[in-house]
Fold:
Amino acid sequence: MHPGELDEVLSLVGTEARRYLEGLDERPLLTDGSEAAARSLGGPFPEEGEGALVALKELVETGIEASVASSGPRMFHFVTGGVTPAALGADWLTSTLDQSGFAWSGHRSPPSSSGSRLPGSPISSSCRRAGEAS
Structure:
């Protein structure tokens, strides 16, 4: 990562996320160019990367057009939730932390093992430690 790349990436993503969300009420679910934009995403990866900023600019230019405007409270056919400032911030932080439940293997991690301590939980009966009574 070159100096300043992280700031450039976060600035671009923040600006484009704000622009997208601010225009969501006026944007149709799909635009006339959505299908063509979605088809254009794909193909082989380049032999050498061009950097995070170039990749994200391409995603902004094509990915937003290719997306279904399902963010927010107007999408009813799936119960996936709508983007809220808290959800967006938590998702960004979760991605930043880049954690995996298996990283706590052999330890009692509150986020990944709390279900195993609930009586009657399918996890509690299948994930006992060796020698642990049922």
